[in-house]
Amino acid sequence: MKLDFYQVDAFTERVFEGNPAAVVVLEAWPEDDLLQAIAMENNLSETAFFAPEGDDFRLRWFTPRAEVDLCGHATLATAHVLYEHLDHAGEGVRFLTRSGALSVRREASGYRMDFPAAASALVAVPGDLIDGLGGRKPAAVLAGPDHLAVFEREADVAELRPDFAALARIDGRGVIATAPGENCDFVSRCFFPRLGVPEDPVTGSAHCQMAPYWAERTGRTSLSARQLSARGGRVDCRVRGDRVELLGQAVTCLVGAFHL
């Protein structure tokens, strides 16, 4: 069996920046063990697998350790593969996922994704969180799909030296550190050691939780964001009720095939 795949750098217009995702093209679904083995072999934060389903596409995402419910950068990467390499001609593409139907439109400025917003609520600071963030105490913590640790300055987030073993002990998917940005509306760093991703370069799904928080705090629904990882990346967000639109660019880095 031969499976074509593409490695795409998402939320950037230049290779070796943004967040790399592998995208594997399927005609039919193999066993989940094979999907997980391919994701482990790729050893990227996410590998996306997609196959046609009616007029749409079924899309699934795997980290090196587990399948996840939502992944923004690998969704962007999959849409990029469809448009740039597989001659998709529609105005948009619809993916059927564990988080419901997700639509992506290609525009002059990039790919616009329509995702569900993620709610969060203030909670007490978990005991391992301060240790996990290198002894830095956030101004507030909100719990949702991830723990959202809010700091007052961009430098507070940039200077974090996380203890990934401590962060892995915290319930939930992962930990997001965020603060107001100096040259954008907000910045972040995202840590998912429980999923085998110590620090994710650019995390689209995390912005589904951050954008509603910052929209409520600033009173604006259109927001610009940067993720302060080593690779870095930009995400433009728009909050529309219980949906969040994320706009980003993508570039293909690698084309290959698995021979199984």
UniProtKB/TrEMBL annotation:
It holds the Pfam family PhzC-PhzF. One of its GO terms (cellular component) is cytoplasm. The keyword Metal-binding does not apply. It comes from the Bacteria. The active site is at 46. Keywords: Isomerase. InterPro entries: Phenazine_PhzF-like (IPR003719). The keyword Flavoprotein does not apply. One of its GO terms (molecular function) is isomerase activity. Coiled coil: none annotated. Belongs to the PhzF family. NCBIfam families: PhzF_family. This is PhzF family phenazine biosynthesis protein. It comes from Wenzhouxiangella limi.
